[in-house]
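Page 47, continued from p. 46.
Same chain as before, 141 aa.
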Amino acid sequence: DASDRAQLCLNELPDCEFIATNLDRVTHLTDAQEWAGNATMVGAVKGCTGREPTLVGKPAPLMIDYIADKYSISDRSRICMVGDRLDTDISFGRNNGLKSCLTLSGVTSEKEVLRKAPRKSGTEHIDPDYYVETINDFFPA
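Result:
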């Protein structure tokens, strides 16, 4: 399987880089279906190789550093990260000096945002600047 191949490459090829796209704890196929996320695979590879990955996806700064440099954006607060996950999208915005807007079309409910319902583990201290029902709210009807 993929983790076996990753382990073999990382253990046998000293110059092989361990890259992870995200460390999502869970993923949701539907509101009712929560599955193990990419962090489970990354954790398995870390455990059997003893190596730490380079994180290239949210919330790591690699993408925004590239974009800000490429487009000469010095004031990151003029950028708004829009996404449906507190632990990746909104955390990415907050950690990198961006505004953030949560769409409620993902895994977070309005009750969670307003703290009228318990938050998912790991999201208790992550708050968006704004929130909308869906990205369709950005476009006139």
